[in-house]
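Incident log entry.

Two folding requests arrived from the same account within the same minute. Monitoring flagged them as a possible duplicate submission, but the sequences differ. Recording both here for audit purposes.

Request one:
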Amino acid sequence: MKHRLLYTLLTLCLPLLCSAQSQQDFASIFMARHAENSALSCATVSPTMMEKVMQLDADKADKDTRKIIRSLKSCRIVTCKNQAEADDLYNKALTLVRNNAGRYKPFDKYDGKQLYVRRRGKSIVELILLTNAGGTLTIVDLTGTMDENFVKQLSSDNETKR
C-alpha cells in the first residue's frame, strides 16, 4: 500500500519535474528568436570553468567565493558587437523581458545597465544583466540558486561608483 501511494505521488509529480527542467533561460530564448541573420554570439561558462578562469586553487580559494561559484549552474554571455544591430537587439531584449513580466522582475538599474531576476520562492534562480554601451550589446545570464546578498555582491563595485 505504501509503495502504491509513493508511485502515485511520483507519477503526479513527474510532469512538474520535467517541465521545470525543460525551462529555458533568457539567453537561450533570446538566441533562439534573434540569432539567425544577426551578429549575435553566445558563450556558456560552467562553474568549473569559472573556477579555472579565476585560477581558484583548492588550498587558496576563498570559501565564500567557491560557495558562490558552486551555487551557479551556468553563465551565458550574449554579445553583439555590430553597432548597427546592437540598439535594435537591445530593444528586443527589453521587450522580451517586459513581455514576460510574470517571469522576470526588475532588480536594479545603474549606469545604463539593467538587472532582472527570476525567482522560485525566495531564491533567485536566474539573474539577467542587460547593457548596450559603445555600440555593443551584452547580456549576462546567470542561472543557479542565488539570494539577494549574492546579487548585491556582484554589483557592489558599481554601487560605489554611483
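Request two (distinct sequence, not a duplicate):
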Amino acid sequence: MEREIREQLSDETYLRDQNAWFEKLRDIFEGDGTGPLVLNGIASWHQDFAPDGMPLYDDPARMLDADLRALAGRMKGTLREDQFRPACVEQGFYGVHFADRIFGSQVFFKSGQWYNRYLTHPVGELAVPDLENDETWKLARAYAEAFFAAGTTVPLFGLPTIASALNIAINLYGQEILMAMLTEPEAAKRDLGIINEVLIALHRWYLGRFPAERLQPVISWGRTQPPGYGQLCGCSTHLVSPAVYEEFIMPLDDALLAAYPHGGMIHLCGSHRHLIPLFRQMPHLRSVQLNDRASEDLLFYAAGLRDDQVIYLIPCPGMPLERGLRIAEGRKLVVNGDYHL
C-alpha cells in the first residue's frame, strides 16, 4: 500500500470526527439522546470479474488492497458537520447467499447478482458444516485477517451477510421450512437451531479476534451502530404469524443478538408490523432498521417499540422525510441517507 493511501486511511482528523459522531450515536443508544442523527457513510465497493463474468474471489489480499484504494479515494473532502460519514470496508462475498454456501447450497451468479438452489433433502436432515475447512469461510477469514494486518486506523470493517436463521432456512428450503414449522415442528426446530448456532459461531469468530470498535455488521455504512452492537436480517419475518415467530424464531434471533455485548439491530424491509409487540419483548433487540415497505409503517414502530429501542429510517415515497420526522418526534431516531434536517 502506498504511503499516501495509508495516510489517508489513518487520517487523525477523520478519525477524531468519526469518534465524535460515535459518541453522539452512543448517547442515543445508551443515554438521553434522541437525535435525529443523519447517517450517510462511505463504503468501499470494488469488484473485479473473471472472463466468464463471475466475481473474482481469487486473492483476499489483492481484493482488500483494491477496496482500501477505492475507499481512500472516496474519503477525500467528505466530512460534514450535519452528517455522520463513517468510512467502511465491506466485501460482500456471495451476497445474501454467503451462509447458504457454507451449508452446502449451490450458489451461482446470474444477471448481476447471486442466487442459490434449494437443498434436496427433507427438513430435519441439515448437516452441521465443517467450518474450519469450509472454503467460503476461509475466504472471509482471510479477507478479515488482511484488513486488520493492513495497519489502518480509520476504516470500519463490515461483516459478510450472516443474516438470520429464518432467512437462511428459507434460502435453503424455500416454502418447505414454512410448512415444516406447522406440520413437522421438531424437524424445523432442529434445522433452525443448527443454522443459528453456526451463524453465532461466525459472529463470535470476529468478536473474539478483532477489536469491537472497528467491527460493524453488514451494510456497515448505512446501519452503523456504536461498537459492541450486532445485527441480523429479519426480511423474511413478514412471512410468519406472531405465534410462529414467537415459538420458532424469536428465541433464535434474540440469542444471536445476545452474542454481542450490547445486543443489536434487526433489519426490516417488508410488512412486519404484526410482530412489533414481540420485538418490544426481546431484551437484546436494541434497534430496528426500516427501509422500503417497512418505512411506511413507521407510525406503528414509533408507537409500539420500547423507549430504549432506536429506529433507523430510510425515507421512501410512502414515508417522506418530513412526515417521518413528525411521526418519530421525541423517539430515538437515526435517518439514513443524504438528508438535511
